[in-house]
Amino acid sequence: MRLKSVPLGAAIFCLIAALAVLTVSVSSFAALRPSSMPDWLQRHVGDGEGQISQVVLERARALYQKKVSEGSVKNPCYFAMDATRPGDLGGSVLGQRYYIVCEAKQVFRAVSSGHGGGRNLKGAADFSNGRRCAKNFGNAMDSELTAGGAYMTAELKTSFKGYYHVGAQDAVFMRTFIQFDGEGEAANARQRVIGGHPAAILKSVCMRKSPQSSYADHDGFVPFGKLVDYAGGRSNGCTSWSPADAEQIIPMVKNNPTTLYIYPESRDIAAVAHAKASGQSMSGAGLYWNASCLSEIGAPKFWPKKTLEPIIAQYKKDHPAPPPQPTPICK
Description:
globular, alpha+beta, about 325 residues
């Protein structure tokens, strides 16, 4: 078969077009990958206590670098959380699974953080979690579950919760909440009121007459209770820190948003559950889950909102909440 000659101009045009496509493809591929890991940070990578697992750091860095390149983040630090690790190590020791990374200053810090406790809707569905390890994850409204994925910190809201005793004195309890905005499966974070806050709450609250207080209601009463630190416990799906750690974290994002990546996502949960069911090893399947917690929970489960929200709605209909009662007057 005789080959047809191609005009020189057309050949040059085709070559330039091909090179352009190749350049775009390479650039797009590079944009999806985080830049090379600095040596000082690589030294913190591992599956031991106080370390960050490779996949968690890689995804957290990629998210942060993407938001910086888009101009939506100028904060020199970013966050990550590994919800597959244990939260309670026993003996009043908390697991370090929330990470603060400031690469410009070569700062890496691991602190404790709570995971979503979930709920046990008896007779309908049990998606509750223990204090130590999380088995159930999800993004349904009112599920109180942790949802992995990409988040951005947003506005801060500080509110008065009441008074409590410190020795012989009364102290004001003000709690700051950092709203998170999520992406993908975590896109309903704002609707779920998911964010970060100190793991502290007032319990056994009663109303005390205190008309001189600037926080008094129209009848001159203020809430008064016992301040409880539940850093070793579970959250309602939020990221909760010990009060001391919260004092360090909250100022970092005030008027200066940054990224938070929470591991695992639903794809990770599905892959690990499949590997467990088929008898594969995590390393052999190229997967990651904290070995101690995986041994404890058996296999993780993700509850998508399209499945779980109708169950929760039906449970509420079948079990209506009692009418709210007024807070009692302090004795």
